[in-house]
Amino acid sequence: MIELANAAFTYGGEEILTDLNLRLAPGSFHFLTGPSGSGKTTLLRLCYMELLATHGQVNSFGVDVATMSRDQVALARRRIGIVHQDCQFLDHLSVAENIALPLEVSGRDASAEVGNLNELLAWVGLDRRAEAKPAQLSGGERQRAALARAVIMSPDVIIADEPTGNIDWEMALRLLQLLVELNKMGKTILIATHDLNLIRNAKKQVAARVLRIHKCKLQLAGADL
Amino acid sequence: MNGLLRVIGGILVGDANADRVVPPSGFTAWLTTFTAGAMAFLAVFALALSLATGRLADRWSAELARTATVRISAPEGQMAAQEKAVLKVLTTTPGIKSARVMTDAEQRKLLEPWFGPDLPLDSLPIPKLIEVVERGSGPDIEGLRLRLAAEAPGAIYDDHTRWRRPLINAAARLRLLAAFSIGLIAFSTAAMITLAANAALAANATVISVLRLVGARDTYIARAFVRRFTVRAFGGALVGTILAVIGVFMLPSPAADGAFLSGLGFNGWGWGLPFVIPPLSAIVAFWATRRAAFRTLRGLS
């Protein structure tokens, strides 16, 4: 799916990440941990092609990202669902319209997929908030809406950056449950988080692999969890 | 051709989804509409000036080309004989429609601006003038001059080339300036719309970023901006053109006083010409916005 081979990222002469080797196999579940500023978000951005590796190679669905055209990047992103910590909604659109946005930009008729959209809204518990504006949602609701938007295209990979960072524990568990369900449906999951309790909880349900960024490098960090 | 028709169709019909994802932006909307309107207004006047100058150049050229003057400077005793000889030569020369000796009153009127109304024409050695009207392509000037030199040594044939050339050159330059002004107006419109488009793109950076992250292609994102700016430019230019055409229509008629400025306007089919400006403004806006949008998008990941 997504593979990093000796990838590195340097910004302004400063090494942010180096010697990154990672393969997100189909159906795998990965957690990415590390202190704030360690480069978790940068690594995720490399995975969803918002940044280009300054050294090494990043392959997305078998294609070297460095050789991709902008259109190819756009098409590849339709196979990756992204959940940001700050959600990134279009505030002038309703929750339902925001969730349906990936369908619309890909040229699919969102109105023909109303059934799927309603199912999705019910799945994330937002069926009664469909017409609300993003600003009217609570933190947990926003995260669930972001997850719904990330999965509406039935992507192969779901990448979430601190998805439980701004929500309470109960809501975090609910969100985790949704991600676990997606993984059981065969989706590849990569979550950046510093919440060890969330990781422990997930490991009870799925065979999650835990990675840690330490001194700009990626390490396996499963034993102490 | 099909591609062009698809683009025009896309702009006219629009893409409701692409339009909706970008929030409406009041400031750039007004700036674009106003700029397009003001520029179209100016362009109509530049066009009117260009056409009027062209007409003027043609008229001057045609009027002066059809007439000539023979000037006879001879001693008192020989004037009548030379006048008669010149008239004989002229009436027998192919390409000359008519020739007539100007009366003293006519000559006095010609000299009035310089010497006043009380010019003692009889006491001054003023040359005799014969007005010649040419026919078709006119006479063989060199042959005619040689014949005049032989029959009436004091006669000089003046076909007005000396006067005509600077007037026509001036009119041609004025026309060129008007055309250059239209070019400048088009360039300024493109520059202003590019600035407005850049402002709109910068104001919607978050929207663009979100759209890219959910898999939108550059063409999808650009389309929303391009269509808006094209439609706004067309609307603004149409209003500006209509107002300017009304303004030109209300100028005094050229028949009233015959002055140059009152001749500023359109004739016949020329009244339809200003209405080419709104579609041209739309084309300028289309390319300016498209270029600005793709340049901005290339800068984003």
Notes on the structure:
Chain A has a domain at 88-153. Helices cover 33% and strands 26% of the residues of chain A. Chain A contains seven helices and ten strands. Chain A has a six-stranded mixed beta sheet, sandwiched between helices. In chain A, strands 2-1-4-5 form a four-stranded antiparallel beta sheet, covered by helices on one side. Chain A is globular, with a radius of gyration of 17 Å. The two termini of chain A are 26 Å apart. Chain B has 301 residues and is an alpha+beta fold. Chain B is built from eleven helices and four strands, in the order αααβαβαβαβααααα. Chain B has helices spanning 2-13, 16-21, 26-66, 79-91, 104-115, 141-151, 161-203, 205-213, 218-249, 254-257, 277-298, and strands spanning 67-72, 96-101, 128-134, 155-158. In chain B, strands 2-3-1-4 form a four-stranded antiparallel beta sheet. The mean pLDDT of chain B is 83. The interface between A and B is medium-sized, with 26 and 20 residues.
